[in-house]
Design goal:
By secondary structure, the protein is α/β, with parallel strands linked by helices. The chain has two domains: about 5-165, Phosphoglycerate kinase, N-terminal domain (Rossmann fold, 3-Layer(aba) Sandwich); about 180-380, 3-Layer(aba) Sandwich (Rossmann fold), CATH 3.40.50.1260. Helices cover about 35% and strands about 15% of the residues. The chain contains 14 helices and 17 strands. A six-stranded parallel beta sheet has the order 5-6-4-1-7-8. It has a six-stranded parallel beta sheet with strand order 11-10-9-15-16-17, sandwiched between helices. Helix 10 (about 295-305) runs parallel beside helix 11 (about 325-340). The longest helix is centred in the last third of the chain and has 15 residues, at about 325-340. It starts with 13 loop residues before the first strand and ends with a helix.
């Protein structure tokens, strides 16, 4: 994979830069700027090397039709203030654009193409669309790891028509994920949550052979508790998961990986109620399991203490109600403590987990925080990502 950092001469080169600026918008205002902040290093690098930048990105799912509510305009304006430089927004039909039209004003250094998903050819991975896009630039840079699990025209097909390079953020992301999949410092622990065990089974199966501990928390732990014979009251539980759980425990025995699940829990009568600690043999029919209990918290903290690498995806409970946020906060604090004395390498991913650590302003206290979502999960499953394959 060629890194753009190794390119010898970027002076005046027109760079088609694929970014993921798919940020949440509410009435045209950006409600979370994390993804914009993460692309600042590649913008600064290309500007410092005197490149001409053509930004390609998307917002939302317009399904190949123009939707003014999903314009990149507010994102373009936000980036302008961050880099203190004028950016020209191009609203013209991409099919009518020509390379020589883009930087007629010599002062222009960055132009933004409008939402690439306004064109149905993008998601169809259309060859002629990719070829036309490629014709606008001298080289291509993918700095959108979070889109790299998509076989889309501006992510994978375009690399057939231009010299293609990995961007700074994409490289950082892959290097962090390698540290929890192929270049591991052991002992290594995975803390995995979420409501459905079936959506994470691919990851669990892929990680069991290489991890020492897999800690299952959140709603998906209820399936394991039920499988082991505990009452779970009216807690969420996925149907038809018996074989999946059996397989997890059998595979873990073959690979000496310990599967850890709650020993005690915090329950409420509904998601807005106060919390109560309960032993597993004491759960009533109208109880809702919404967090891990103090015994489980201590067990997890002890495992974190002896781990040298940790991967965390999914909170331990319904943290939106502070009464059920303790488990997740204690996990975060235990990792942060080890991070401060540099005795652990920590990778965190998943929207809910990021929302949780943002609540305690702790995003800087982890080695790597991934905003990639689907690409992050598919990489951990061992799948080949089209955008990465195209760069190789």
């Amino acid at each position: 994979m060629n890194s753009i950092k190794n390119h010898e001469n970027l002076n005046q080169k027109k760079v088609l830069l694929r970014l993921d600026l798919n940020v949440p918008l509410k009435n045209g205002a950006i409600t979370d700027q994390t993804r914009i902040n993460k692309i600042l290093p590649i913008i600064e690098f290309l500007l410092n090397n005197n490149s001409k930048i053509i930004v390609v990105s998307h917002v939302g799912r317009p399904k190949g039709k123009v939707n003014k509510d999903l314009s990149l305009k507010p994102i373009c304006e936000n980036l302008e203030t961050k880099i203190n430089k004028k950016i020209r927004m191009i609203n013209d039909d991409i099919f009518k654009l020509r390379k020589e039209d883009l930087f007629k004003d010599t002062n222009d250094q960055i132009v933004f193409l409008e939402n690439i998903r306004f064109y149905e050819e993008e998601e169809k991975n259309d060859t002629s669309f990719a070829k036309h896009l490629a014709g606008l630039a001298d080289l291509y840079v993918n700095d959108a790891f979070s889109c790299s699990h998509r076989a889309h025209a501006s992510v994978s097909k375009i690399t057939e028509f231009l010299p293609a390079f990995a961007g700074i953020q994409l490289e950082t992301e892959i290097n962090a994920l390698k540290k929890v999949t192929s270049e591991i410092k052991k002992p290594i622990t995975c803390i995995i949550g979420g409501s459905k065990i079936s959506t994470k089974i691919g990851i669990i199966k892929n990680l069991i052979p290489i991890f020492d501990n897999i800690i299952i928390v959140g709603g998906m732990a209820n399936n394991i508790l039920s499988h082991k014979g505990s009452q779970i009251g009216k807690s969420i539980k996925e149907e038809n998961c018996e074989m999946i759980i059996k397989e997890i425990f059998e595979t873990s025995k073959n690979h000496s990986c310990e599967i850890i699940y709650p020993e005690d829990v915090m329950v409420g009568k509904n998601v807005d109620s106060s919390s109560e600690v309960k032993e597993l043999n004491n759960i009533e029919d109208n109880d809702l399991i919404l967090d891990i209990g103090p015994k489980t918290v201590n067990k997890i903290k002890n495992i974190i203490k002896i781990s040298e690498t940790i991967l965390w995806n999914g909170p331990a409970g319904y943290f939106e109600n502070p009464n059920f946020a303790n488990g997740s906060y204690e996990i975060a604090k235990a990792i942060i403590k080890k991070n401060k004395d540099k005795s652990i390498y920590s990778v965190v991913g998943g929207g809910d987990t990021i929302a949780l650590i943002n609540k305690i302003n702790a995003i800087e206290n982890f080695n790597f925080v991934s905003t990639a979502g689907g690409a992050f999960l598919e990489y951990l499953e061992g799948k080949e990502l089209p955008g990465i394959k195209a760069l190789n």
